Amino acid sequence: xxxxxxxxxxxxxxxxxxxxxxxxxxxxxxxxxxxxxxxxxxxxxxxxxxxxxxxxxxxxxxxxxxxxxxxxxxxxxxxxxxxxxxxxxxxxxxxxxxxxxxxxxxxx
Length: 108
What we know:
Blueprint: H1 15-56, H2 67-81, H3 89-96
């Protein structure tokens, strides 16, 4: 195997500039990914809320069978997707549903 020689950092002109540029690229990529994930999750949770209101609650403030539905849905979704997907669906339902717009989150 050939011996690969790496220049000493003290002798590598422009190392700090290169390191700074690469670090900035990584930070920008992380921020872009974070924004994309946040946008996708916002749209997903809006769609979840919309389905709850339209299909289970039929436009009323609560489904007729109340908290049992929330607990069952949380248990079933946790079994399928893990505990972090809907960490506390009751908080999510309470926060999202009362102000749910009929418009898509992209239109708001």
